[in-house]
């Protein structure tokens, strides 16, 4: 029961529900809060971006060190005089139909495969692989003057590479594509053997190392052509046009001392075309391959050996091997040829003695 006071009204109700004060964020507070949230998000984004940039930079450095980064280099900055090219007739290749086809492709679709270069001792870029592509771009720039042909996409070798490895890289692409003749492959080995940086490596060893991925029979062909090029020298005017079988047979005959090598060189120096050269080589094979006159006395022995002083002689059909302490490689070629001619003359006189009337 509610009691009233003397004034006739009840006491004022003091009990009431306390509600929490609602504070709405003002414009300034909202701006500060948004700025703080944006700063947090921006900081996290920057941290993530820096992490990704560091990973990208690490990956780029690794790719660059491994030579997987491509560069656009001006043609004029690339030299081709450090490594000898693996083609014997560069001018003919530069003017060939195949070169025109390559130029047509680059003109329509751009350069699709990079060349490979390295820094030479003088700091210049030197071409290692891609002579045809570099030549095609140079010809296109000369013909059109368009700036897109003034640069070449290149892979740059990083660090110091082994000299022999560069030779291998140079020939590898063309060998795999079967685009080189045996004469060209032999010439690379001959040139590499004369390279001062590869001192101590002979032609035989270099053929094995340069063309280690080829079948041993192909390496045998290359060795035959190396002997052929070394024996005939500049007299062989069209080495790239010599067929495999003909070149191997001529090398075999020359190596065994059959036929007149000096006459062959004189005949070849007069060849006016690859066809003339082929006819001369074929005639040499036919002439050198004729059976020798039958001796008056025949022997059933396949071979026999004897010694003259400290020299051991082994004789068999088509072969006379002389082994001694003499360093025959140090004997001048003209002197050795005179000795061999005297040897042959003595044999001929013995087999055809003159009858003198008394």
What's the arrangement of secondary structure elements?
Elements: H1 27-65, E1 70-74, E2 78-79, H2 90-94, H3 97-109, E3 115-119, E4 125-129, H4 131-144, E5 151-156, H5 163-176, H6 182-193, H7 203-210, H8 216-232, H9 244-255, H10 261-269, H11 274-288, E6 303-308, E7 311-316, E8 319-323, H12 333-351
Parallel strand pairs: 2-4, 3-5
Antiparallel strand pairs: 1-5, 3-4, 6-7, 7-8
Helix pairs in contact: 3-4, 6-7, 6-8, 7-8, 8-9, 9-11
Organism: Sulfitobacter sabulilitoris
Protein name: Chromosome partitioning protein ParB
InterPro entries: Chromosome_partition/occlusion (IPR050336), ParB/Sulfiredoxin_sf (IPR036086), ParB_N (IPR003115), RepB_N (IPR037972)
């Amino acid at each position: 029961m509610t009691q009233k006071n003397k004034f006739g009204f009840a006491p004022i109700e003091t009990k009431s529900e306390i509600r929490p004060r609602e504070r709405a964020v003002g414009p300034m507070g909202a701006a500060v809060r948004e700025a703080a949230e944006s700063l947090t998000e921006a900081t996290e984004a920057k941290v993530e971006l820096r992490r990704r940039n560091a990973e990208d930079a690490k990956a780029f450095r690794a790719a660059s060190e491994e030579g997987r980064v491509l560069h656009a280099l001006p043609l004029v900055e690339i030299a081709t005089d450090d490594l000898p090219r693996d083609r014997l007739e560069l001018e003919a290749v530069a003017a060939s139909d195949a070169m025109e086809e390559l130029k047509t492709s680059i003109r329509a679709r751009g350069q699709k495969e990079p060349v490979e270069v390295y820094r030479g001792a003088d700091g210049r870029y030197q071409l290692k692989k891609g002579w045809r592509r570099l030549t095609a771009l140079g010809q296109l720039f000369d013909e059109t003057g368009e700036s897109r042909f003034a640069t070449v996409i290149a892979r740059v070798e990083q660090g110091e590479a082994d000299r022999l490895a560069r030779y291998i890289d140079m020939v590898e692409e063309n060998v795999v594509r079967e685009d080189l003749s045996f004469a060209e492959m032999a010439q690379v080995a001959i040139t590499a053997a004369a390279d001062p940086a590869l001192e101590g490596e002979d032609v035989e060893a270099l053929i094995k190392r340069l063309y280690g991925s080829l079948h041993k029979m192909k390496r045998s062909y290359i060795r035959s052509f190396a002997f052929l090029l070394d024996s005939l020298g500049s007299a062989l005017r069209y080495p790239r046009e010599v067929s495999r079988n003909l070149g191997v047979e001529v090398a075999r005959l020359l190596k065994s001392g059959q036929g007149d090598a000096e006459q062959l060189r004189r005949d070849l120096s007069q060849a006016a075309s690859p066809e003339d050269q082929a006819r001369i080589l074929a005639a040499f094979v036919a002439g050198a391959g004729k059976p020798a006159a039958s001796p008056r006395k025949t022997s059933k022995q396949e071979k026999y050996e004897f010694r003259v002083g400290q020299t051991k002689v082994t004789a068999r059909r088509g072969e006379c091997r002389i082994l001694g302490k003499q360093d025959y490689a140090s004997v001048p070629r003209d002197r050795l040829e005179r000795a061999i001619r005297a040897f042959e003359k003595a044999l001929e006189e013995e087999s055809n003695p003159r009858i003198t009337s008394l």
